[in-house]
Amino acid sequence: MAGTSSPPTDPLFHSDPPFSAPNPAGSPRLPAARLSGAFRVPVSVNGTSGGGAPPPPPHTECKMVEVHGVKVASFTVNGVELICLPQVFELFLKHLVGGLHTVYTKLKRLDISPVVCTVEQVRVLRGLGAIQPGVNRCKLITRADFETLYRDCTNAR
C-alpha cells in the first residue's frame, strides 16, 4: 500500500500517554502519593547517558510543603526554601487583590525581590500542575516574604 505509513520508531514519539496510572480525581496532575516526596527532572549531560542517570541540575528538586494548610511547590536554593509565587497567588491572594500585576506592585513597595525560576524549575512546576501548562516564566519567594505579602493583602481589604 503506497498511501500508508508506519508509525514513527523514534522513542520520543509515543502513542500512549507518558503516565497512564488511574487518577481518581480526574486531574492531569500527579497523584497525591507522588506529590508527598521530592520530584526530580530527568536530564542528560552533554547528550550522554553512560554509566547511569546523571545527577539533576542544581535546584531542580521540588518538594511539596505546607503553607496555610495547603501543599505548595518549593525549591531549596542556596539553603533557602522558595515557594512558587503564581501558585500561592492562585491559592491565597487572587481573591484579595485585582491581579498578579497588583502583587508585583506590592512586592516592589515591600522591597521583596522574587527569584526567577530556571527553565528546569518551570518544567517541574508545570509537570506538578503548580503553574499553567503554557507558562514559560515563574518566580519564587521565601516563605517569610510570602507572609509579609499575605499580611499586606489582607490588611488592605
From TrEMBL:
The keyword Nucleus applies. Signal peptide: none annotated. Its main location: nucleus. It is found in: Nucleus. Gene3D superfamilies: Ski (3.10.260.20). The keyword Nucleus applies. It holds the Pfam family Ski_Sno_DHD. GO terms for molecular function: DNA-binding transcription factor activity, RNA polymerase II-specific; RNA polymerase II cis-regulatory region sequence-specific DNA binding. Keywords: Nucleus. GO terms for cellular component: nucleus; transcription regulator complex. Residues 59-155 form the SKI/SNO/DAC domain. Belongs to the DACH/dachshund family. Residues 1-32 are annotated as: Disordered. This is Dachshund homolog 2-like isoform X1.
